[in-house]
Amino acid sequence: MTKKYLSVLLAAVLMASLFSACAQQKGGGEAHTLVTETTTAIATDTTGFKLSYSQSDSLNPYRTKTLNNQVVETLVFDSLFVPDDNFEAQPSIAMGYAYENGTTLNVTITSGILFSNGKKLTAKSVVHSFNEAKSSPHWKKMLSPISSASAVSDTVVKFTLAYQNPNAHNLLTFAISNGDTDKNGYPIGSGRYKFDEGDGAVFLTVNEKHADFAPHFTKIPLVNITSEESIENAINIGNISYAYRDLSKDADVKMQCNKKAVNLTNLVYIGINGNTGITKDENIRRAISLAVDRDTLVKSAYRGYGRSTTSPFHPASKLGKQSSVFSTKADAAAAKQAITQSGYKAKELKLDILVNKNKERYAAAKLIKQQLEAAGFSVTINREKNKTYRSKISGGGYDLYIGETRIPNDMNMRSFFTKNGATRYGINLKSSKTAKTYSNYLNKGEEIGSFVLAFSQEMPFVPLLYRQGMICYSKALQGDMQGSAENYFSNIEDWYYN
């Protein structure tokens, strides 16, 4: 009896539901099924995400010498600007800038920013930091085009430039500090994290004074690892979660991790002795450029960690995009035509390539030798130790050399075209039209196109490629990895472990 009653009751409920649905549909409405979505919160993490640092090196950003610590410090110290992957300055502490005249740059900083000890960040803090960075190992060379800084008000800093430079703001990426240290002696910054220690360990904790920062990694242990080889091993076995490698010594690293290539301003180029021999002829210099297949160099010598360039400037930069003047592919036929225009005979087309012990540059030299020989040159390679290599370059004892130099973020080429420039060798600055037009570009506002045209005709050196670095991170780490050089942890608040 009970079962029969229950069956009747269930049937009645079912019929009532059907009639109710029909009544809603007849009235023009829609029957809806309510679905409740559940969201799983990602827990905070105090032990899983680990970074390497060098205990023997300073954590003061103006004293640091190791790349290891420089990477970590970007989480602790803000800067006026951070470069994006195209080397364009994006505001960090700065909220705007204006060039008052050719040699004065005014930067306005955001008011209300606090250091992790609660003190206000003002224009005086920026001036103090600039003066510290100006003499530091890390930023000294980069900041050389800026003569001085002064506080106009609490929120405005005036930078006086050594010469006219419309892209000088791209250089303002130095760390901002007020010179204070915490109770443990660690320097104070205004960044997303701060240094801390306990139980003999060093770690980063969230800077509560930093506005609107709520990461999953609220504490980041720092693991003392010094050598590059040990860093590779540490990430392979899971002792650290993330590493940045600039690949300056070896692009063929064996790291078992997720990898992301990041653009660098390290230009690899062929230096040319334009003062003697057949390379004194600009037709020969153009032939050398035409004969080289830059894409092959990137793919083979640099294992894909590079960007072929079609101008002196980085191809991702604004100037690089405006000044494409040669191909990334070899054109042996055009190279042979340029040789013909030079008037040199086949037996005179002898070149030597000077290179140091760097693995990638030596591999590039061997490929360039093959490419030049395909155009009609006879080529030998002279591989030397670094000291001898540098001595021969400064003394003019070469036809060609494979070089590398870091171009500043403002894409400044003064190192090639000024008498004290570190890469000026082989260029006759007195007679070089390229050097003259570059000076006019900087000091008289001449169009950049005039410089690029003069460069492509004269070819004082041959730009090959811009190297890339590599971010390597644990395969268990989740989130869109948006880090770039000098801004390695740009969206760390979005990273987490499952």
Structure description:
The protein has 498 residues and is an alpha+beta fold. It has 13 helices and 19 strands. Helix 6 runs antiparallel to helix 9 (359-374) and helix 12 runs antiparallel to helix 13 (448-458). The longest helix has 25 residues, at 2-26.
Give short descriptive properties of this protein.
globular; 498 residues; four-stranded mixed β-sheet; alpha+beta; 19 strands
Strand content: 15-25%
How would you characterize the largest beta sheet?
Answer: 7 strands, mixed
Question: Percentage of helical residues?
Answer: 25-40%
Measured between the Cα atoms of the first and last residue, the distance is: 54 Å
Could you tell me the radius of gyration in angstroms? 29 Å
Unreliable spans: 1-40
Structural class: alpha+beta
Shape: globular
Total helix count?
13
Number of E-state strands? 19
Q: Quick check: average pLDDT?
A: 90
Provide a quick synopsis of the model.
This protein has 498 residues and is an alpha+beta fold.
Protein topology:
Blueprint: H1 2-26, E1 51-53, H2 67-73, E2 81-83, E3 89-91, E4 94-101, E5 104-109, H3 123-134, E6 146-151, E7 156-161, E8 193-198, E9 201-206, E10 219-224, H4 228-237, E11 242-245, E12 258-272, H5 282-291, H6 294-301, E13 306-308, H7 318-322, H8 332-342, E14 350-355, H9 359-374, E15 378-383, H10 386-395, E16 400-406, H11 414-417, H12 433-443, H13 448-458, E17 461-473, E18 477-478, E19 496-497
Parallel strand pairs: 1-10, 14-15, 14-16
Antiparallel strand pairs: 2-3, 4-5, 5-7, 6-7, 8-9, 9-10, 11-17, 12-16, 12-17, 13-17, 18-19
